[in-house]
Amino acid sequence: MTTPMPEFPAGFRWGVSTSAYQIEGAAREDGRGPSIWDTFAHSPGRIVDGSTGDVACDHYHRYAEDVALLADLGVSAYRFSIAWPRVQPTGTGAANPSGLDFYDRLVDALLERDVDPVATLFHWDLPQALEDAGGWLARDTAARFAEYADLVAARLGDRVKLWITLNEPFIHMSLGHGMGVHAPGRLLLFDAFPVAHHQLLGHGLAVSALRARSSSPVAIANNYSPVRVLGDTDADRVAGAAYDALHNRLFTDPLLGLGYPRGQGFDPGVVRDGDLDVIAAPIDVLGVNYYNPTGVRAAEEGSPLPFEIVPLDGYPRTAFDWPVAPDGLRELLVGLRDSYGDRLPPIQVTESGCAYDDVPDVTGRVHDPERIAYLDGHLRAVREAIDAGVDVTGYFVWSLLDNWEWAEGFTKRFGLVHVDYPTQRRTPKSSYAWLRDLIRP
C-alpha cells in the first residue's frame, strides 16, 4: 500500500506552468511580431519533426477552456509567459494594444476562477528585430527588456500575483547561444558569457520597473541540476566544479550579491561598474526549475569544454531519456539553503515534470502511471526539504498541456492534459485526476 502523501504547509502554492510560444499559436494574429523561435522553427532541419509553434495548442483562442481545466484541477496559481513580440512586435516602442488585451482577458479569467496569475516576462521568445540588432549579446537588449516590463506592468500590475522576470537564463544561453540547438542557433561555447550577463542585467532593470508599477512580489526562475562527478581523479572533480559554476552558480551567485564565480573562464569584460548592484536587486522568491541531475567527468584532451556530460545509470528514464531522480530535488533545495543561508529568499519550485509517450486507450482515456509516480516522488522530496528547514512555498507542475516542445516539436508530451493536435481536443490524463485529488482531498 502506498504511503499517504504528507501534508504541506497552509498556504502552499499549488500550480502548473506553460509558456507562450509552446501553447499560444496565433503566430501572425493581432499584430504579433516574429520571434527568434518563429525564425528558428521555420528553418529546415532545426526541429525534429519539422513542426512549428504557429498553432501549437491554440491557447490564444481556447484560453477559456484551459482556464476551466485549471479551475477543475484546483490549483491556486497558473504560471504562464507573456510573449514579448505580442506586446512589442519589434521589441521597442509603444505596446501593441491587441497583445495586451489578450493577457488582460486571460488574467481576468483566472481571477474569476480564484487562480492566481503568475506571469513570466521572458520565456525565450525574443523579438526577431532585437536579435537582428544583436540580441542578448548586445547590452541594449537589457534596457529594452526593462521597457517591455514597464509596459506589461502598467497594464497588468494590479492583478498579477507574482512576477517572474526570466525563465531559465542558463538554458537560453547554453542551448541557444553556446551549443546552437535552440533559437537563435548560435554556436559560441564560452563566448556566450555576454548573453548571461545581459540577461541578468535585464532582470535587475526589470525588477526596478516592476516595483515601480506593482506591489506584487518579483522572482526569477532558474534551472538547476545537481552535479554527479563520475570519476575519482582531481581532473574529474575540477570538471564537476566547472560545470556546477556554469549551470548552477553563474545565475545565482550574482543575483544574491556574491558576484560571478571566479576562475571558471568567464570573460568579465562586459561587466561595467554598477552592473552587479543592479543584478543583485532584492527578489522576493527564487524560482527553482528541476528535472534531473547531471553526470560530469573530465573532458578528453583537446576538448573545447573543461568537462564532459555523461549519462547517469541506475535510474528510470523519461521519454526524453532524462533520469528520474526525485532525491536530486531534495538535495538541490537543501544545498541552496546551505550555500546561500540568509541571502536566499523563499523558494517556489516553478517547474518540475516529465515527458512520456502518452496515448489514449480504446475508450479515449489517457493513463500515465509513470507521471503519477514522478510527481509523487518529487513532491515527497519537496516535503523532505521543508522538514529539513528549507522555506519552500510552492510547486508548479510542468505542464498543464502537452505542447510544442522546442527543438523536439510535438514529439514529447509533458502535460497533465493530453492534446490531440489535429483536433485540439483536450483530455485530462490520470495524473490530472491524481493531482486534483491531492490538492482537493
UniProtKB/TrEMBL annotation:
<feature type="binding site">
    <location>
        <position position="398"/>
    </location>
    <ligand>
        <name>substrate</name>
    </ligand>
</feature>
<dbReference type="InterPro" id="IPR017853">
    <property type="entry name" value="GH"/>
</dbReference>
<dbReference type="InterPro" id="IPR017736">
    <property type="entry name" value="Glyco_hydro_1_beta-glucosidase"/>
</dbReference>
<dbReference type="GO" id="GO:0005829">
    <property type="term" value="C:cytosol"/>
</dbReference>
<comment type="similarity">
    <text>Belongs to the glycosyl hydrolase 1 family.</text>
</comment>
<keyword id="KW-0119">Carbohydrate metabolism</keyword>
<protein>
    <recommendedName>
        <fullName>Beta-glucosidase</fullName>
        <ecNumber>3.2.1.21</ecNumber>
    </recommendedName>
</protein>
<feature type="binding site">
    <location>
        <position position="22"/>
    </location>
    <ligand>
        <name>substrate</name>
    </ligand>
</feature>
<feature type="binding site">
    <location>
        <position position="167"/>
    </location>
    <ligand>
        <name>substrate</name>
    </ligand>
</feature>
<feature type="binding site">
    <location>
        <begin position="405"/>
        <end position="406"/>
    </location>
    <ligand>
        <name>substrate</name>
    </ligand>
</feature>
<keyword id="KW-0378">Hydrolase</keyword>
<dbReference type="Pfam" id="PF00232">
    <property type="entry name" value="Glyco_hydro_1"/>
</dbReference>
<dbReference type="GO" id="GO:0008422">
    <property type="term" value="F:beta-glucosidase activity"/>
</dbReference>
<dbReference type="InterPro" id="IPR033132">
    <property type="entry name" value="GH_1_N_CS"/>
</dbReference>
<feature type="binding site">
    <location>
        <position position="291"/>
    </location>
    <ligand>
        <name>substrate</name>
    </ligand>
</feature>
<feature type="binding site">
    <location>
        <position position="123"/>
    </location>
    <ligand>
        <name>substrate</name>
    </ligand>
</feature>
<dbReference type="GO" id="GO:0030245">
    <property type="term" value="P:cellulose catabolic process"/>
</dbReference>
<keyword id="KW-0624">Polysaccharide degradation</keyword>
<keyword id="KW-0326">Glycosidase</keyword>
<dbReference type="InterPro" id="IPR001360">
    <property type="entry name" value="Glyco_hydro_1"/>
</dbReference>
<feature type="active site" description="Nucleophile">
    <location>
        <position position="351"/>
    </location>
</feature>
<keyword id="KW-0136">Cellulose degradation</keyword>
<feature type="active site" description="Proton donor">
    <location>
        <position position="168"/>
    </location>
</feature>
